Amino acid sequence: MIHVLILRDRQPGHFNQAEGMALAVARLGPVEARRLEIRPARWARDDLRKLIMRRWGRDPDFWLRLIYGIDLASVEKPDIIVASGRPTIAAGMLLSRHFAVPFVVSGGIDGYDAKAIALNIVSSPRQAGDAGAAYAPIPSTVDPDAYPPPRALADIASLDGASLALLVGGSAYRREFPPEEWEALLAFVPAVAQRYGVKWRVTTSRRTPDDISDRFEALAASGAITEFVDYRTAGPGSVRALFGADAVVVTEDSLSMLAEGLAARRPVIALKSRVVHKHYANEIIAGMAGESLAILPMASVTPGPFADTLIRLRPPAEDARDILARALAPLLGQSVPETRRPS
């Protein structure tokens, strides 16, 4: 039995990555997962936690109590600790030091001593060669085995009757969608359905403007959309069923949705805004592009180029959990799982 301690902060995009790493460990053998909620004290901001870990963080018991209110006597020794999100890094380093077990972080660790972290899961190819890093897909909790295999979209004729999931986000940090881009998307969706006979399954998110959600709801009422999931009433987690579509289209503000579409072993198209500022996420998205993911401009994409791009894409050949498991196996002294190809 492999005992995994999952550190969870408040952000779903972070704790789902930690949960995803635990699922990857489960590819290596039976797992018992325990979870620890990580809530730093208000005074213990990120820069101060970094300073503490660089200069004074030698006593795990003292600092875990002071920064996080964690009593080590209440934490059972794990075989591995996994986490994502800056609030969890100092906690993981302290727990790792106390228990003398490996600590794995998915995402950025800037400002912390990389030597105190057994493995850093990175998704930017620019960081692939860094010491202590493993280049792998962003971990997620999506299980591709929960869905039937997607229809092969090998030519234009195969699009007739194919289901396409559209995951609609909204403006986010360093990413904005001006009104004209929403207008373009709202015209594009019914045009593709009419021209190629695809069946759109659309969901909105907490970032989607209310008026845009209302207009997608109207498209569903008109029959241009086969299925509409309104986040305002459905809430978090409502997107999961849509990953069973034959392909996934995502507004590029959501790294997690792009990663989850690929984790579901679907071809993915990212719709990019023209208002994208320089940011680390750009590197990750560019690294995702390839035979399974393409990036198209939301403002100007038309049905023809979209369809031509879609039929060139292929579902990911390997389960993302197996790629992660290969990176984690040496830390646990486990054998690497055999690659599982789609049937």
TrEMBL record:
Entries under InterPro entries matching the protein: Elm1-like
Pfam families recorded: Mito_fiss_Elm1
UniProt cross-references to SUPFAM superfamilies, sorted A to Z: UDP-Glycosyltransferase/glycogen phosphorylase
Name of the protein described by the UniProt record: ELM1/GtrOC1 family putative glycosyltransferase
Protein's organism: Ancylobacter oerskovii
